[in-house]
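Step 1: inspect the first sequence and its tokens.
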Amino acid sequence: MTSLAIGFLLIGLLVVLVILGMQIAYALFGVAFLGIWLIRDNFELSLRMLELTAYSGISDYLFATIPLFVLMGLLVSVSNVGRDTFEVAEALLHRVLCGLGVATVAANTIFAAVTGVSIASAAVFTRVAVPEMERHGYRASFASGTVAGSSVLGMLIPPSLLLIIYGVLAEVSIGGMFLAGIIPGLLLAGGFIVMLMVLSVLAPRLVFTDPDAARDRRRETGLQMPLSVIAAKMTPIVLLVILVLGGLYSGFFTPTEAGGIGAFGAFVLALARRSLDRHRLWQVMKQTGVISVSILLLLVAASYYSRMLSIAGLPNAISGLVTESGFGPVGFVLFYAGIVLLMGMILDSTSILLIMVPIAAPIAAGLGIDLSQFGIITVIAVEIGLLTPPFGISVFTVHNTLNDPNTTVEQIFLATLPFIAVMLAVLLIVVWIPAVSTAFL
């Protein structure tokens, strides 16, 4: 059996192991170890490469970016920033069509710029936005679907944990990936807002329990909030975003330094709001360690897996097949995005990146595709998987947090379909118009 055939069989084995429930890190280590052993017929070489990968995999200063941004996101989450952001958005947008839905998207957009994790957004806004939307006559399923759908912005709007992981796997600039995510992220948020407004006009009964009462309620004064209160709630958040992203994009900070500054700023914000006692600080630090070590272990495993693929000659072989098939760059990207969408139905986002990026990124580079654009396409496709059954982790997070027997998982999945349609449209825009993701590079 050729090394290429072994490589393809091992990829199939990896997917099967993950579907059966094996932890993705262990599956990657096991498959890569077995692959190098079989292809080179050398057990000691496989062990030696594992040792070298484990050392070089996390010795880079760049890897400090991960725990720092994770720490920043967790500190922001315990500071009630999500609640304040939603309250301000509600006060400013209550007269707009589908005002609270738009406010949820706007609040998620701002919250994403200081957390970078979709699951955190889904959990926070389920507690904050859904009860308020129900109180104003929105259907519970629609409110839950809006929270789940807009929570995916956390994976695209920088600083995003998925963009960091992709940057490490594809060996591209993390700062560049953050720049590439700005326009697609804003385009996605804008698309969500337009979709919600159109839906409230064309299908009001899908949005409101009583459309006439909701129309009358929109004409009312609504929540009053003095400008001084709005400024007090939003100034720290805006300053934190400007501090981190402004310093990063201006070149004043490296991504690692930006993460450190952001974590310190979030710590000061949490102290100023008196939302951080010793118990909470310990919980945040412990959770930061658990998440960071898990991600770093995954990245070491992915690096080992990538070396096995290179030894098997898999990326070059697939690149040759793509070239001979006449697919071209666009055809390859669409085919790749379709595979990622299908994998999103059964695997979590990080697992998809770890499995697919080491294979696909070298092929994309060989076809002349900008790897920053390719990364944005990958992340959007992965994000869609957060909303598609049967996995749909964002939907299940909202459902479990809501804990309402009258709102089923199936209803939330149906309510997220318009968001999936918008995401597919943005995905195609990024594929056909590379400048959308490369304009700031």
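Step 2: inspect the second sequence and its tokens, then contrast the two.
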Amino acid sequence: MTQNRFVYLTASLTLAGITALAAATPTLAATEIRVAYGNQPGEPVDVAVKAWAERVKEESNGELTLQAFPASQLGGETEVMEQARFGSPLITITAYSNFISSVPDLAVLDAPYLADDFDSKLKVFDSDWFAEQEQKVEASGYHIVIPDTVYGVRQLLSRERVATPEDLAGVKIRVQNSPMYVAAIKAMGAVPTPMSLGDVYPSLAQGLVDGVENPLPVLYGGKFFEVVKNLNMTAHMHTVAPFVTGQAFWEQLSPEEQQILTETGQEMAANLRTLVEKETDKSLQQLKDAGVQVHEVDTAPFRERAQEEIPKAFPQWSDGLYQQVSDIING
């Protein structure tokens, strides 16, 4: 064997060994996290999540990716929450009232008339009380990635004008099927009627319900103004929603990945608030242009009823909880 042929054969064997070793060693794939939400494409949550995905990809050099799944593509809210708790790599936006079974006190954050504005409401997330609730959330199998995303101010669109709680006596208002929303509308003086949002338009048209409550972009987007023409600015909820994942999955992420998600998530929350406020102003004008009568409401009588009735509706809450959280927010 000549020396050149020996060198060539040795090099070939070495290259073959390296190739075989590479084939046997799996490459480290990027960690992909699905982000699930019920909002439709183009709504503020969808726009904000997709911008968040770009920031996560940028900050992680592509090692961490977010994949958006709008319009409940991965299932309903309860189903997606269960997937997260059992370790699926996903994050979902939910309501604090959905913790009523596992961490009951957290549901108070969706109670009506806790805050007059979002700046006040957001103070609760820096409190010792909320830190204690986060620990309970983790013990129940979840992790709150972003606690403070502004979702919108909920107003009341109805057949007749509403100025006082007495005006709501016998009035059927559609609510989502949630104990907190049912209790809130009942406390305001109306008859809560749970149903899916998709059923609201025909129900209004047929007289099965007399009104619907939601943030203004939802009220406009659902075209409910074609049937009922009175917008009552009750501002009964300043809704702030968390993005949540499973504690088991969160613990699988490296500290660097956790930090990236947390820091870019706070950027996303700020972006979402801007989008929500801009869309709210736009929707108010669109409703006016569509012939809706807008009525300012003295909310004091509604607030007094909520303070009295809501704690009674949730005996599983800690004593004095509603007032305690209200003091943190308004103090």
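Step 3: confirm your contrast with the notes below.
The first strand starts at residue 31 and ends at 36. The chain has one domain: 28-330.
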